[in-house]
């Protein structure tokens, strides 16, 4: 799938977009927000954190 790459605190984080979920560090996640929280330790809108404009498959 598509890879999303984000640098945070000098560390590059790669997320793979899969059919129904996302993969980060070999683990499945249901949302980008959960991944952003795992990376930062705080609540983030995942789409904003990764610099995306639209949610996949939603108008």
Summarize the structure.
By secondary structure, the protein is an alpha+beta fold.
What does this protein structure show overall?
- With 59 residues, the chain is an alpha+beta fold.
- It has helices at 32-40, 46-49; strands spanning 3-8, 11-17, 22-24, 27-29.
- The protein has one domain.
- A four-stranded antiparallel β-sheet has the order 1-2-3-4, covered by helices on one side.
- The chain starts with a strand and ends in a 10-residue tail after the last helix.
- The model has no long low-confidence stretch (mean pLDDT 92).
Mean pLDDT: 92
- Percent helix: 10-25%
**How much of the residues is beta strand, in percent?**
25-35%
* Radius of gyration, in angstroms, nearest whole number: 11 Å
Mass-distribution shape:
globular
Number of strands: 4
Strands of the widest sheet, in order across it, are 1-2-3-4
Query: How many angstroms does the end-to-end distance come to?
Result: 21 Å
Give unreliable regions as ranges: none
Please summarize the sheet with the most strands.
Answer: 4 strands, antiparallel
Structural class category:
alpha+beta
Query: How many domains make up the 3D coordinates?
Result: 1
* N-to-C series of helices and strands: EEEEHH
* Helical run tally: 2
């Amino acid at each position: 799938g598509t890879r999303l790459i984000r640098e945070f605190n000098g560390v590059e984080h790669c997320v793979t977009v899969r059919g129904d979920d996302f993969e980060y560090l070999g683990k499945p996640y249901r949302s980008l927000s959960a991944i952003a929280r795992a990376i930062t330790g705080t609540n983030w809108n995942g789409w904003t954190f990764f610099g995306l404009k639209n949610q996949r498959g939603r108008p």
